[in-house]
Structures are given as structure tokens and as C-alpha cells.
Amino acid sequence: MAAAAEEEEEEAAAREPAGRPAAGPALWRLPEELLLLICSYLDMQALGRLAQVCRWLRRFTSCDLLWRRIARASLNSGFTRLGTDLMASVPVKERVRVSQNWKLGRCREGILLKWRCSQMPWMQLEGDSLYISQANFILAYQFRPDGASLNRRPLGVFAGHDEDVCHFVLANSHIISAGGDGKIGIHKVHSTFTVKYSAHEQEVNCVDCKGGIIVSGSRDRTAKVWPLASGRLGQCLHTIQTEDRVWSIAISPLLSSFVTGTACCGHFSPLRIWDLNSGQLMTHLGSDFPPGAGVLDVMYESPSTLLSCGYDTYVRYWDLRASVRKCVMEWEEPHDSTLYCLQTDGNHLLATGSSYYGVVRLWDRRQRACLHQTMRRAAKGSGVALLKHNARDFQEAKHLPTVPQSREGSSLLLPDQDFKVLQLPPQTSVRSRPWLPASSSSDVTRSSLPWPGSSQRSRSQ
Length: 461
Known about the structure:
CATH topology of the domain at 244-273 and 284-385: Methylamine Dehydrogenase, Chain H
Structural class: mainly beta
Helix content: 10-25%
Number of strands: 28
CATH class of the domain at 244-273 and 284-385: Mainly Beta
Distance between the termini: 56 Å
CATH architecture of the domain at 244-273 and 284-385: 7 Propeller
Number of helices: 6
Radius of gyration: 24 Å
CATH superfamily of the domain at 244-273 and 284-385: YVTN repeat-like/Quinoprotein amine dehydrogenase
């Protein structure tokens, strides 16, 4: 009740016109441009204390310009490494406040979906829809207006595979799926159009699509390039012999090359970059990999930087401008567990999913040690095979009177070994004040709910 009263008071104050204080230091009578320049040197705590002086200063110190520098150094604040703002509609000060919950691991667990039999789903987020694989189907669910739950009835069902869907991506209003039957399926999101064709001799482990080009990797030790054009579906452009089963694949944002992550059994390097136009090997990344150090997940952050993780328990950050023989940064899983998946906010935050006990770790990429970990104690032998992060709709549901919740965005989605999909947003409802010491914030409580993992996944070498 006290939090609700305080929020109503702040909203009422925001509606009232607040002029400059008539009395006080001469500093407040300076032009606003000079005040902005002076206040731009203040840190988060100083700005917070200054906002407590009067209504005018509270409104003045809420200016996005004063918080932008702080937000770019915060975790999951909506700014990429290059400075692109992904949440322009949300006040920057609010993002800095919520970023403290990401840093300290304050979260709430929400169950989005349940299913009865053991499944190993793949997921994709697209706007207000969640696409998730169930056996040989792909189901599309729409988020409800509160952003904290899904409509029970699927928005769409996409079929076509004879065996389980191993992987799928969304691109150009299409769903491109890879199946255990060795086939690639292409489905139009807003129609019943479906095409499938035989792509590999064994199961297709991974697929990616950008710019009208599809790349796929398989257990049959090949990677292939396909066109997405309607008149050329199923026509293989290039077949690449990788000498290893392919676990992960990703196309460069420049659409000139793609990278494959292999099992590292038949070739000394599990990470190789291939020319997308000719199919020729351009370079391989790293050296001195032990046998079996397969790469299970790889993703481009920019045309020249990418992240990888896998069996050797390391997350590696590669910068092709610096060196292709050695990564520029690496983080080791403390418990020597295989890393199945990774996800990043495009700046400082990094999340990884481990192979045992449903462990999810959050990392600040400026530090060697992880920030914190969460796990399900009942998830023995269960790994986290997929993490999805959405940082587009970072809004609080203002229609909720006392417990506003994060609207779908800036959250992690992962499958759970108890046959559920869970949404893990930070606690946006707590009235955390980052300018106060943690011990004095009595209204900020850390959630005791662990972050669960997915059902058991076995990927034999």
C-alpha cells in the first residue's frame, strides 16, 4: 500500500507544473544547457540524491541526456555496443533502475506454457508472438496484453516434418525449419504455404537464414547453401565438406560469409568461416583445441565480432579485426560443464546455459567471474539447451495498480525440465533506488525462485 501511495504521489507530481525554485543557490538560475553540462559529470548516486531535493530537480534530473552515459555502462539497458538505442520509447532513467535488478539477479519466475510429455523445444520470439517446436510441429502463441502470459490456443500450427524439429529460424515472414528427417521446411507465417525438401542424408542440426539465403548443417558432415527464392526452393547452391558433424551455424550480417561450429573430431578447428558466394574456406578461428571441443552455439554480434560456446566449457569472444588465431576474451564455466547455449543484449550482458542441473549464469563481459547463477535443485542431469532474450518492449504495465510487470521484453525465455516454458523478467515492480546502499533499500527483496533449465539433452560426440 505504501508503494502504491508513493507511486500515485509521483504521478500527481508529474502532472503538476513545476517551476524552478524561487530561493536557493544561484546555481539553479543558470541556463538549462549549462546545468545539463554540469550534471552530466554526476554519477548515478549523485543524480538520485539531487532528484530528492525538489520537484523541479526531480524532473530535470530525469532527462534522458543525463542518464544515457550511465545506461550505456549498465547491463541490459537497451543500448548496443555501437550505441544503438533499442528501447527509444522507454525513459533511460527507468532502464538504469531496472538494470540493477539484472546485475543483482532479482527476478520473478512466470510459467508461460506446460506440456505433458518430455520435449526439447526450440523457441523464437517475434514481436508479441512466441514460436515453439513440439515434436514435428511448430506452434505460434500470442502474448496477452499484460505481456506476462500467453493465449492458450495457438495462433498457428506449422507441420511438415516426419521427425522432430531440431531447429528453426524466422526470416522475411518465413519459418525455416530443420528436421531429424534430414529435410528443410519453409512455412509462410501468415498463410498455409508450406514446402519441404530433402536437404541432408542425416538429421539437420542447425539452420540460419538472412538476405534470401539459407545455410544448413547436418550430422552427415556437410554444410549446404540454399536460395529462399520461390522458384528455386530445394536447389543446392554449394555443398561443403566439413569433415565433422555440424552443431551450429550463423550467417554474417554482411551476407558475405557464414561460420560453422563443428564437433572437433575430424578437423583440428571447430570454428571455420566460409565464403557464402563460392563455398570456399576463408579462415578458421583459434588453434590448439582439444579433440571433442565441439561448438554448440555461435552467434554474430557484428560483421567482425562473434561469440561461441560448447563442449570445452568456455565462452569465447572473437574479433576478426584483431586476430583469427586467438580470441580476444574468454570466460570459463566454473563447474566444468558443457555450455549448450548463449545469449547477449548486444552490449555487456551475457547469459549461458549449462549441461547439468539447469544452471543459467549471467556474466558482465567486463569481468572474468560470473555475476550470479540460478538453478533448479530438482533438475539433476538436466541441461539448458536454449535461451531467448527480447529487449524490444521494455515497458511496465501501468494499468496494474500495485504490481506492474515487465511487458514481455527484456526477459529470458527457456524450456524447463518439468515440461514448461518460463519467462524470467527482472523485478520491474520493486521500487529499487540505485543511488541508495543495498542495505537501506528495505522495499527491494531478492527473489528466492531459481532459474530452471530444460529437459535432459544428449548430444553425443
